[in-house]
Amino acid sequence: MKKKIFEVTSHRWMNEKRPKVKASTFAHYEYMMRRHIVPFFGPMVKMRNRDVRRFVNKKVKCGMSTKTIKNMTIVLKMAWEKHCRVNRLRDCIDWKGLVPCNYVEKSLPVLKVDDERRFIEYIKAHPTRKNVGLLLCVNTGLRIGELCGLKWGDVDWENRCIRVSRTVSRIYTPSLPGQARHTQVVVTAPKTPKSVREVPLTEDMTDLLSTFGKETTRDFFILTGKLKPLEPRTYRYHYVKLMDELGIRNIRFHGLRHTFATRCIESKCDYKTVSDILGHANIATTLNLYVHPGREQKRQCISQMLEYVTSDE
User: Fold this and answer.
1) Which of 122, 151, 189, 197 has the lowest tally of Cβ within 10 angstroms?
2) Helix residue ranges per DSSP H, 88-226
3) What is the sign, positive or negative, of the torsion defined by CA atoms of 17, 23, 27, 29?
4) Domains recognised in the chain with CATH numbers
5) CA separation for the pair 86, 12 (Å, rounded)
């Protein structure tokens, strides 16, 4: 049997993956394969550790982040396993030794308490649809795509909660070689199965929402009041403009989600509850992202331990 080069088998792998993953995930895979992986490994039939190492070093020298390189090598590994099965080859790559492992999740800047109060007060005084969406994010920790995907039918007015069941995103559509790439806005299921969730609302948040759409058609999106959703990129523009007007240090939109989580942890909410509200796949994600004990917390922990040890009771 004539061995097939990686470029050929990678197309098979992509065709198999397309119906099994979300459109946004497939677009991400397609982009990495087309722009980075296939140009480097495409002509190969066999691959060695040194080939992957050269690839990783090349991306490091280009200034690519460790997290991006790690994600890229994960995609490469999946495609290469398919290549080995097609060609009846043994996968001899030491993936654990080659994939970058020194990535440390950076904590995302969050709103200071004073800035958050001013932010909330401004929105309550200027309750537009888009502004109320920002307040909803600070009150619930929803992702931007989840906010854009909310419909009035997702609001349970009686029990004061919202059902998160979709997300909006703009993705690249796969194209043939030589063709211009296009993007499209898609409405899909949330990030993970755990992201499909019910999130409680405060009484004030429910009342504020009701001024816009308690009697509105259930299929209308909350942020637009129409059948067409607001694109996340457009919503980010609105957010950045508002923060500039308020003179608040500009943090990424996703920082509002981190602000919500941080305030929950600071106010002694239990981690499991916070994790469920955020829609994390597991509580470890919540702990790694938001629980960062400071010096005084560590000192208090040691003091409590010593007090327990030396206590006569």
Assistant:
1) 189
2) 95-98, 113-125, 129-140, 144-148, 203-213
3) negative
4) 6-98 (1.10.150), 113-290 (1.10.443.10)
5) 10
Closest by Cα among 218, 285, 260 to 116: 260
Q: Which long-range contacts (CB under 8 A, 24 or more apart) does 168-174 make?
A: 168/229, 168/230, 168/231, 168/232, 169/24, 169/145, 169/232, 170/231, 170/232, 170/233, 171/23, 171/24, 171/27, 172/27, 172/30, 172/31, 173/27, 174/26, 174/27, 174/30
Model-wide pTM > 0.90: no
| Residue in 132, 142, 234, 148 with CA at minimum distance from that of residue 186 | 148
- Beginning with the edge strand found earlier in the chain, give each strand of the sheet holding 197-200 in spatial order: 155-156, 161-164, 197-200
| Rounded Cα distance, 145 and 234, in Å | 11
CA distance 225 to 221: 5
Quote the DSSP letter at residue 107. Answer: P
